[in-house]
Amino acid sequence: MEFLHVYKNFVKKYKIEFLKQNPKTFIEKWYFKNIIDEINFVFEEIKNIKDVNNKNILALILSRAMRSCRATTHSDLATLVEPVSTTYYCSKHGKICKPIFSIIKWWKTYSKDTVKRIKEFEKLKTETHQYCLSGDARTIDIFTALSKKKKSFADILNRQKISGIFSSPPYVGLIDYHEQHAYAYNLFGFDRKDKLEIGPLFKGHTKEAQKNYVEGISAVLNNCKRYLKRDYNVFLVANDKYNLYSEIANKAGMKITNTFKRPVLNRTEKDKGTYSEIIFHLKENRCL
Ligand SMILES: C[S@@+](CC[C@H](N)C(=O)[O-])C[C@H]1O[C@@H](n2cnc3c(N)ncnc32)[C@H](O)[C@@H]1O
């Protein structure tokens, strides 16, 4: 009650407008009007920047800041449940927390953090090629898609093929990734492709969902095999609660040659409890 009183005074003092009734978009549902106004202001400023690199970096900072400004409890940051517009007991921090009224704190934090990461990466990066292709991993034609974007890199890959994959695939019924990043789809006007998600939360983790997941991930591996050289290495980070990965490997004509345990120590959401993920090392199954 004590905190609520202070909170209400702040709301009055800073003329905070709460969430919209009958929201039509993700942003209307999950952001206070004051936050939306600030985001729109910053986004308009970013649009006027001529230098493409600076523009992209600032857009990235804005999208990181936006993720932290949704009107949710801290414990539901990864999987949104219901918007909040008042004080609440926060199980993540063990104290009373409140939804935030301005993006400024996160804008500053992510500005510094992003620049720090870029500087760090500058030192670590080697003279190699990288490209980020977006598409359905079950069907994307990697070489053709890449040759449209970065021909010189595609030519090298066509000659020598791909040595391996390191990936963290989705897990069965755990997260709706489109929903988790809906703010960015909304802000930047990206097309949503929810139906292409493998193992989304909205499909649950029933036997049927597990079967679809096995089909989905093995289809990805079978698609990727077309681009891999002989004796390839595939590493997949998985929280394999339902023991599906030996079947997945089988369906993809691969075998699990090693498993490594990876402790997950820092999680954004709910409990701060640690858990382990497995990194599967897969190779071609020569016995087939
Ligand atoms: C565990 S996350 C890993 C994300 C990223 N590798 C990382 O470490 O931040 C799994 C990702 O797989 C993506 N995904 C799900 N289905 C997909 C599909 N059919 N094709 C490509 N990506 C997919 C999800 O959208 C999500 O971004």
Protein architecture, described:
The protein is an alpha+beta fold. It has two domains: 2-124, no CATH class; 142-284, no CATH class. The protein contains eleven helices and six strands. The strands form two sheets. A four-stranded mixed β-sheet has the order 3-4-6-5, with helices on one face. β1 and β2 form a beta hairpin. α3 packs antiparallel against α4. The chain is globular, with a radius of gyration of 22 Å. The mean pLDDT is 90. It binds S-adenosylmethionine (SAM). S-adenosylmethionine binds at residues 136-138, 168-170, 177, 196-198.
What is the gyration radius calculated from CA atoms? 22 Å
Strand content: 15-25%
Into how many domains do the coordinates divide? 2
Q: What's the shape?
A: globular
Number of strands: 6
**Discrete helix count:** 11
Bound molecules: S-adenosylmethionine
For the terminal residues, how far apart are their CA atoms? 68 Å
The helix-and-strand class reads alpha+beta
Chain-averaged pLDDT: 90
Which spans have pLDDT < 50 for at least 5 consecutive residues?
A: none
Give the ordered list of helices and strands.
HHHHEEHHHEHHHEHEE
Query: Which sequence of strands runs across the widest sheet?
Result: 3-4-6-5
Helix content: 40-55%
* Major sheet attributes: 4 strands, mixed
